[in-house]
Amino acid sequence: MASRFPVLNGPPPSAPRFTVALVVLALVALGLLIPEPAAAHHLMELFRLTPGPLAGLLSGLGHPLLGPDHLLFLLSVGLVAWSRPWGWVLALLAAGLGGNALGLLLPQLPGLELLVALSLVATGLVVAGRWPAVVLIPLYVFHGAALSGAVIGWEATPIACYLLGLLVSQSLLLLLAFTVVRDWRSIASVQAINLVAGLFIGLGLAFSWTALVP
User: Fold this and answer.
1) Mean pLDDT across the stretch 105-116?
2) Domain assignment of residue 121, given as a range
3) Taking the CB of residue 134, how many other CB atoms lie within 10 A of it?
């Protein structure tokens, strides 16, 4: 006699994506252990590399990963743009490139690191539905400006390689945000989303305090 109950041959389709999302969140949590999260950290400082094309490229690739404030902001895009088109990625990349240029032209922008930290507070408000998602695009300009500040004083070729590395690294992180993180957002409960929003606000305030009180 055939069973009336379906036979389950494995986990539900969303389980693998949810597991990957948890892994990503765990990696972000590890990134939060880096001291002075709002400061400029990159491979040039960590390994005492001499500015050059290869060093600039590697530093650009790694810089967004070594700053948890930048990393969290990039990954948060998937939480607030889960129902939006891929054009959002292009808009954010354009804003980031504009911020890079701004940071090179005006390297001593007052309060830049504080604005970067406060952008996480704004992100939490966007995730919670209090602010419109479009505010993330101008906020990304501040992140781009802060990232470019690490190469002030370099020659043109290393700077160009650094910016290329930044473009590749941020593109991959935004791709991750628009796939894994956005998939998690589509199946997450309202309580989970509100919890994440609160975490962003709390972390943003903590990073802001670090920027104000070194």
Assistant:
1) 86
2) 46-212
3) 12
